[in-house]
Amino acid sequence: MKPARTIKEIDTPSSWSQLVQGEWAAQMLQAQLDEWWPRLFGYHMLKLGGLSCEFVSGHCNIRHQVCIDRDNPLRNLEADPMALPFLEKSFDACVLAHQLDFCGDPHSLLREVDRVLVDDGYLLITGYNPLSLHGMRGLLPWNRKRAPWSGRMFMPIRVKDWLGVLNYEVVFHENLAILPPTRYPAFSAWAESMLSGSFSGIGGIYLIVARKRTFPLKPIKPSWKLRRQLTPISVNCRTQANKKQSG
Q1: pLDDT, tens digit, for every residue of 27-63?
Q2: Could you tell me if 202 and 131 are in contact, meaning their C-beta atoms sit under 8 angstroms apart?
Q3: Closest Cα to residue 137, out of 10, 146, 8, 159?
Q4: Cα torsion 91, 92, 98, 102: sign
Q5: Average pLDDT rounded to a whole number, residues 204-222
Q6: 45 closest CA partner among 112, 98, 96, 99
Q7: Pairwise CA distance, residues 15 & 124, whole Å
Q8: How many Å apart are CA 68 and CA 246, to the nearest integer?
Q9: CB within 8 Å of 164: residues ≥ 6 apart
Q10: Among 32, 55, 22, 51, which Cα is nearest to 180's?
């Protein structure tokens, strides 16, 4: 297994149009996120990266949404994802659309997002699955320098392991896009529904929804105490003393 951190410079796309079949991937994820927007509550939501900014979230219960990117015109703030200019526990939800795939240090990125996320806040992560038909296309020589294969794809189980280390509870995980798109959308939708049960593990795109959990660090001491069993010893002592006096 290759280490998560790399010194290789990776060009991060700022729009879905910069990815091969990116608009198709955005439509698949948008349909899933539309089911999650009404379940999010709070005051502030962070959409990190240009791909996250292009998701439509108008009917989300969280009205104040901050979009961070350097090139996407939908952004309302420019900042370094590794050093966000916010106080700790500032956001109730955060969206990371394929940011781990194009990040040189995904561990640091997750820790920074964890810093600005409130307790019990939601973290929505999307990415490409390397063990899929779409992911294996990166093995072809002419695709290695094209996005998304120019980035780094991590298996969903590995991402969930990272979240577990940060004390996140995965409340939802689903793999999408089992087959590549065709010219017939109706056939693609039918094939996706037929294969989603048995072959969901090889879906090309994954969506993970995790919730930040906190546990008390100070252990709670039990209120009960063990009784001192000194009665038998005291009885034995008195018995021996009485025998000596009588003798």
Answers
A1: 999 999 999 999 999 999 999 999 999 999 999 999 9
A2: yes
A3: 146
A4: positive
A5: 79
A6: 96
A7: 18
A8: 94
A9: 170
A10: 22
Task: State the residue for tokens 């094209």.
Answer: 146
Q: Determine contact, residues 163/208, Cβ cutoff 8 Å.
A: yes
Q: How far is CA 9 from CA 127, 179, 193, in A?
A: 19, 30, 38
- Give the tokens for residue 210: 């995790």
Tens of pLDDT, residue by residue over 157-175, are: 999 999 999 999 999 999 9
Report how far residue 42's alpha carbon sits from residue 61's, in angstroms, rounded to the nearest whole number.
7
State how far the Cα of 217 lies from the Cα of 48, in Å rounded to an integer. 30
Instruction: Tell me whether strands 168-176 and 205-212 are parallel, antiparallel or unpaired.
Output: antiparallel
Q: If we measure between CA atoms, which residue out of 165, 186, 160 comes closest to residue 175? A: 160
Task: For 207, list phi and psi in degrees, rounded to 5.
Answer: -125, 120
Average pLDDT value over all residues in the chain: 85
